[in-house]
Amino acid sequence: MKNRNHETESRKIEVTDDDVPNDAAAGAPEEGQSEDDPTAGVQADLDRFRDLALRSQADFDNFKKRAAREKEDAIRYANSSLLERLIAIVDNFELGLSAAKSASAQSPILAGMGMVLKQLTDFLADNGLQPIDAEGQTFNPNLHEGIAREASESVPEGKVVRQMRRGYKLKDRLLRPSTVIVSSGPASH
């Protein structure tokens, strides 16, 4: 075995000009290395391929992390379209309840409808839906949709006077902004 390795090391390889690529950078020795050093080009190629492998590995790791994040978001917000449709039902149900309260506050049907509404809102809350209570809050264009300004003696300028339609957030995302009327301050006489 020793003798065979010795023969391999002592054997010289002849390279002609036809075997060398025309690329000047490929055949040129690096700084600090002589042209007689046959490992200079091999080492440069090795360094280049090592760098390429490390960059490819980093790119792949970033891809895996991004894909996992996107998958987590897709799972987290998968019910958003269903919950958006249920919000409209809750709105109509609340309108019906308020109309029924004005007709008869002690009706057993009204009490039953109130329980159904509570079950529905609890179900929505369990699925990550959070109502945005805007009344009395400072107007925030990221959470509120202002539809009008109204003079008010009791509510300072820039605060929400009335909420016309409740807004909702799904976990940390806005699902629907609150439709509000904003105070323009005291009426000037």
Characteristic terms for this protein:
single chain, 189 residues, alpha+beta, 3 domains, three-stranded antiparallel beta sheet, three-stranded mixed beta sheet
Describe the protein in words.
Helix content is 50%, strand content 16%. By secondary structure, it is α+β, with helices and mostly antiparallel strands. The protein has three domains: 38-76; 78-127; 130-189, Nucleotide Exchange Factor Grpe, Chain A, domain 2 (Roll). The chain has a three-stranded antiparallel beta sheet with strand order 1-4-5. The chain has a three-stranded mixed beta sheet with strand order 2-6-3, with no helix packed on it. Helix 4 (80-103) packs antiparallel against helix 5. The longest helix has 38 residues, at 39-76. The termini are far apart. Mean pLDDT is 80; it is low at 1-17 and 19-30.
SSE topology:
Layout: H1 2-10, H2 24-27, H3 39-76, H4 80-103, H5 108-126, E1 129-132, E2 144-150, E3 160-165, E4 167-170, E5 173-176, E6 178-183
Parallel strand pairs: 2-6
Antiparallel strand pairs: 1-4, 3-6, 4-5
Helix pairs in contact: 4-5
